Amino acid sequence: MSKSLVIVESPAKAKTIQKYLGKDFVVLASKGHVRDLPKSGLNIDVEHDYKPNYEVLEDHKDVLSDLKKAAKDSDEIFLAPDPDREGEAIAWHIAQELAPMKKPMRRVEFHEITKKGVQDGLSKPRTVDEQRFHAQQARRILDRLIGYELSSVLWKRLCRQVNGHFLSAGRVQSVALRLIVEREEEIRAFVPQEYWPVDVALVGEKRPHFVTHLIEVDGVKVVTPSRDRAVKAGERVISNEADSKAMTSALSSAKFSVRSVEKRERRRRAPPPYITSSLQRDASSRLGFAASRTMQVAQRLYEGIDVGAEGPVGLITYMRTDSTRISNDAIEAVRAHIKSKYGAKFLPEKANFFKTRSSAQDAHEAIRPTNLDLNPDAIKKSLKPDEYKVYKLIYDRFIACQMIEALYDQTTVLVDAVASKEGAAKAMLLRTSGQTLRFAGWLDAYGAVPTGEEVAGEESAKDASADAEDGTQLPELREGEKLTIVDPPGVKSEQKFSQPAPRYNEGTLVKALEELGIGRPSTYAEIVSKVQSRDYVEKQDRALVPTKLGLAKTSGLRARFGDFINYEFTAAIEKDLDRVEEGELKWVGVVDKIYQPFHSRCDSEKKGSEPAAGWPRPQPSDKICDKCGRPMVKRWGPTSDFYACTGYPECKNVVDENPAPPPRVYEGRPCPKCGSDLLVRTARRGSRSDFLGCAAYPRCDFTSPVPLGIKCPKCKEGDVIQVGGAKRKPFWGCSNYATTKCDFRLYQPPVKKNCPQCSAAFLIKSGGKTRPVLKCVSEGCGYEEIDRAEIDGESETPVVEAKPIIGVVREPYINPEILKLPLPPKKGWGGKKAAKGAKDDKPAKEAKPKAEGGAKKGAAAKAAKAESEAGSDEKTAAKSKAAPAKKAAKKTAAAKSTKASATKAADKAAKSDKTKPTKAASRAEATA
To answer: Is residue 318 among the annotated active site residues?
Structure first.
């Protein structure tokens, strides 16, 4: 029976599609790209039309082998990676690898992983789109060329490595970082402006009372200063306490009356369905999810979730899209759902239509649920918590987008105030505005949203009055009605300052990138995560704050590559790539136009001996080198600046600007290996921030966690310490395990609190979050109490953590005997090379006579080589004697694989030489 092979990207998607296609199809996953540019090196032939050197990824060789095997047994092949540029590239590479099979291959797209979606995809096969692949290839090559050359500039001008990884600079990554840095510069340069808003609490004939805001004094408008709006001529700001007191004094004795009452209806239109950027923004603001986390969850929802009897089902449509378009079938289904669940009054006469951005590719419809019968709450048990939250967000938004507008009743009241005090302002005007929700409309499905707060993707949510308050109830008021002050709060004025623009978070950064036309739906999450993964940006309360390294990098690139690391330039590249996909431009021409001038700029930058403007430069200082007496200069460092001797390279003295405090001595416990003092040191990485290390390091490498202040209840001598916790689940054990093999263990965190029943030194936390308790583990005790601190969210008896509890600053004692030992060879970067070099140097020096010629030359070289490899005359002799036996043993072991044969060969070899068993014989025996 003939079979067809369908190749998708992920195993989860393959499992779902296999269910729909049945036994006549074999569905396999490529697990992403099978070929790509090698990680190291440029691997692009710039001289020959930027030809890339693709190779099969090391971890995908087995995957490709399975695909080839399945293709051999199939009659036709369907390439079905994701329906975007990246998916098209995966399909192209797979097609290149499977071409020798000479089987018919077709490209298909699945926009939703449902039975209907899969059947529709298979019914529209096509060839691999070369133009779309070329657009992806052009992006990949540009990213490699620009990143490769910019990174080398950073290595020359800043530093090569930070925290174990090399500095890098990407085409889009650097522009995103520039956005964050320029917002930070704007915040630092911002000068706050003082103002004193004046509010008055009033009541009329009917309650409740309401608060009004001063907006005009003697015909001059009173405004609040802001970063977005300058104070105009004829406007006034109450900018100091003296003016504020004069105004509050005048209002305290003024007479108030209602000038006007304006009532109007306000409509708030439903937001469009989610596209990639709006989903990431709402998930960030409403769920606190990072963009990468949101896309990972959405990918799983798209590929298929096992929802019980139905098996794996794709719950949402393709999640990388920039279009708000909805299929007619989906619109009919959602309108029927709204009518049956919410009623006809929530359904508009015609389906809501939403405009798509002019720059959008519009390749896929909006993100929506594939089946409205699969309500998030109905299948909650089948979903992980993250999956439920994201799916509910998408489900509710899709239903809301086709519901009727929300209606508000908005009331604006103007109040006249006439002062009676001499010398005070005569006429003042106050205003209040409130609105109430009259009909929820789409908010009934989407959930309450505060007035004035824009929902991601919403066209306009800010057409209400600037000081309208959601849900504020104003009493019935009439023009001319007299009002009186309600005290408290009475007349109130407090000091405030204008605020700078807020820092970007992941959601607002994605919005800024989208508005600037930088990146595409498939790249937003990668852009945002990359600027954080390279120490250029750190998160502070969800805000993205540039580090010292990020500021320096952006400053240099902006000064030297400002026309390349530029918003308009990067957006123009995206448009050119779109034109490549449409067939209007050739990809080689696009790459060449960008790369050639960029390459020239990089070359000139790297050739300059001194850093140009924008890069950190050495600064003169009054510090003198304590080793050679020369003056020192202050140099830039990625985390802190340092002083370097001007006598470099003769003098390599370096002094940190902010040197770390000396480690403290841990009293009462010497190093068990050498007897020196133990120091409380801070770990670079991992869950434990501190540990004990020997003062004689590197001659003694003993380390231990900091004791928790609890004696081991088993041996009575050791201390309880935490073990693990960085990459594995922690447990607590005795510090004497290495010496006395005390095997005391705890797998639940100890709490330093005496047991009231048996007076044990500690209790343990147990029961989890549902029933937190403190228990005694002493044999025969069984004491247990409710952990009130855990229930209340406070910790009067915190879990004992590995923190420095004893430490004094003094000169540490180092055992003089260990100082006699030589330093061990360096480990890590360069260690292996150094060791290899040392090994290679010795034979080279001893083989010097080899160059003098004659018979002595060969003999000397052989002798030196033999000595270096064997290390002694005895071993050399044994090895030379064993040479014939070694050959015999190898030949026998290869011919016969049984243990008896190998042993026989080894015995024969040993017997024939009348010496000890050779290495070859031993190896043969071990192999058998």
So the answer is: yes
